[in-house]
Amino acid sequence: MTQWINNTVNFLSFMGFLLLIATMLVIDSESMNGIVVAKRFWFYTFMCITGVISIILAFYRKSTTRVDEIKTIIIGILTVVIIGISRNSNQEMMNAEVFLLIVISYFFFDIYFSYNKKSIKTFQFVLIALALFEVIWGYCQLYAYIPEMQTKFQLSGSFDTRYAYAVYLASITPIALYWTITLYQRLSAKFSTPSYTEQAKPEIIDEIMLFVLSALSLLGILSIMPFTGEAIAWLTAACGCCVVLYFKFNMHAFIKRLQTQKQRITLLISVLLISTGIVGGYYKFRKDPVDENLLAWKISMNVLTENPLFGIGIGNFQKAYGDAQSYYFEHGNRTERELALANTPCYPVSDLVRITAETGLLGLLLILGFVATILIKSIRSLKRYPEKLATLGALISLSMAGLMSSPIRSLPLAIILMLLLALCAPREARQEKAGLSFKVIYLALAGLVFFTAFPEMRKYNSYRAWAEGKLYYNMKIYATAVNIYAPLAKNLRHPGFLIEYGQALSQTDRYEDSIAVLREVLQSVSAPVIYNIIGKNYQAMGEYKLAEQNFRKAHYMTPSLVYPNYLLANLYHEMGLHDKTLQCARQVITQKPKKESKETQEMKAQMESLIKSIH
User: Which UniProt keywords apply (predicted)?
Assistant: First the structure.
């Protein structure tokens, strides 16, 4: 009976956590924002389920985990996150709530792997199998074998962006590399020994199957990565693979065998020259993207100085960054190249920057201490648990991506990050029954998950209704869209929804209502499109000064956009200010947008006609 209970608990807990990781595979074309919202609701559901599983494991007599320094640090992180969320406005900040649940998921993963240490290796092969599945999915997209799933006509697998797809594959590359090498070595040793018995054949067959899975996944990743066009994925994958190869082949011993100082200096200079050549070559061929990131870093430093100790609050980075960029281009010492390179403020240039800005130095130190502690303990335990090298390389790959870009804005990548941290965390060898305080912690965490997730899960029908209203919005039947959006606005506070609602109100001549809705959005999001709509509302109401302020705000926020200057030219023409009209019209004509389009060509043609009519 006891064995039956153990098997049942093992199976149910394994399936619960497997389905949580399967968030990355979820798609739902009927839900608003397509894949993104569907993944979130799946994540909410299985966070609640794994919360129940974690409570069962915490009270189960074989639970061996305990509160250690790592959990103490992450409890501190949870405290900072909760305080940061409480400082937000009343805007619906999905990212803040998901961030909280992601942090809690570490505890759930940790207690599961402490209860079932054999699953650590199993989940490594789960990640490898998912990577191979994503490779197959990607090739099907490339060759249009599943056109009903290919709505964006880009290589993204089951992810919402090509970037997230590439970073996931890059993160799994070190795991696939480690097991391909390890299993090849094991099989070579066994087949070279003719004395292996018949009883060993089942084990050999299992290892052959796992070797084939790892090798196919590795080859598939390397073959499809060039099609993603994401250079950062190659760089992060290389970092993780280098760590795997360094420890796997004991390169440290090779370096120690270099007897003379000349040999060591030669090796160091060679490494530096190769690294410099790679960086220089990358900058030469990717000059514009690199300069865009450098500009984003420059502006992000202004955000970091707003409240360096306690941060600006979870979920507020986008607004703060947009305002900082607008102020910089209006009052700063900007260059012509910076004006041309500026992007619409959407995502942080780095997860490190966003975490520092939103949680302050305290949050940054806690998170860095958490990751560093796990990395150090993982390296120290490699001799005892060599299979941890695979997840160590994957964690380094994903961490490097977080330093140079923002992978955790993708929900699946955030889940994978927590999974890798839990896989790398040290496990106590001794059997120790969980104490009462530990059980209380898991009860509190599960309660927090239910308190956070259930209100969001009740909004699913609202998102479905948003999707239906968006059909009319896209067809520019704004009156019908307003009728559908109006009742949803009471409980659906997503910025994207409110922007559409504000635009629909503006198109139906309800200018004051539109301004009120869009002002709500500006509490948490700062984007040129919002200021453009508000400016057009004021222009229609005859409030020209306010319209001008909003158009200029949109222009300074993203100077590379043609549309704000186009709106200013039309505004000045309506006001009868011919000199300003000509100035803005000429700027539209001479401006080189980052990407030419039919719309920009039409705007330039209209400005040419406007100049001729004035002269």
Answer: Membrane, TPR repeat, Transmembrane, Transmembrane helix
Instruction: Report the C-alpha gap between 475 and 486 in whole angstroms.
Output: 18
Q: Tell me the C-alpha distance between 436 and 63, whole Å.
A: 12
Q: Is the pLDDT of residue 1 over 70?
A: no
Show Cβ contacts of residue 58 under 8 Å, excluding neighbours closer than 6 positions. Answer: 111, 434, 438, 439, 442, 443
How far is Cα 524 from Cα 323, in angstroms, rounded to an integer?
11
Check if the beta carbon of residue 436 is closer than 8 Å to that of residue 10. Answer: no
Average pLDDT over residues 71-95: 67
The torsion angle over the Cα atoms of residues 261, 262, 267 and 269, rounded to 10 degrees, is: 110
Cα distances (angstroms) measured from residue 14 to each of 87, 101, 132, 439: 37, 19, 20, 20
Q: Contacts for 27-36 with beta carbons within 8 Å, 24 or more apart? A: 27/149, 27/158, 29/151, 30/464, 30/467, 31/460, 31/463, 31/464, 31/467, 32/463, 32/464, 32/466, 32/467, 32/470, 32/497, 33/463, 33/496, 34/151, 34/160, 35/158, 35/159, 35/160, 36/160, 36/411
Helices 119-142, 411-424: axis angle to 10 degrees equals 150
Q: Helix, strand, coil % (nearest 5) of the chain?
A: 75, 0, 25
- Please report, for residues 47, 52, 234, the alpha-carbon distance to residue 109 in angstroms, rounded to integers and kept in the order given: 11, 13, 28
Tens of pLDDT along 316-365? 788 888 888 888 887 767 777 777 777 776 666 788 888 888 888 888 88
How many Cβ atoms are within 10 Å of 207's Cβ, its own excluded? Answer: 18
User: Each residue of 252-284: pLDDT tens digit?
Assistant: 666 666 556 666 677 677 777 777 777 777 667
User: Considering only CA atoms, which of 371, 356, 367 is closest in space to residue 316?
Assistant: 356
Pick the closest to residue 421 from 120, 138, 137, 68 (CA basis). Answer: 120
pLDDT of amino acid 21: 93
- 3-class DSSP assignment, residue 341: helix
DSSP 3-state of 88: coil
pLDDT digits (tens, 9 = 90+) for 145-185: 665 554 555 788 888 888 899 999 999 999 999 999 999 98
Taking the C-alpha atoms of residue 25 and residue 28, their distance in angstroms, rounded to an integer, is 10
Q: Specify the higher pLDDT residue, 116 or 84.
A: 116
Of residues 84, 156, 551, the one with CA closest to residue 360: 84
Catalogue all structural domains in the chain, each as residue range(s) with its CATH number: 2-260+288-457 (no CATH), 460-614 (1.25.40.10)
d(CA 250, CA 168): 27
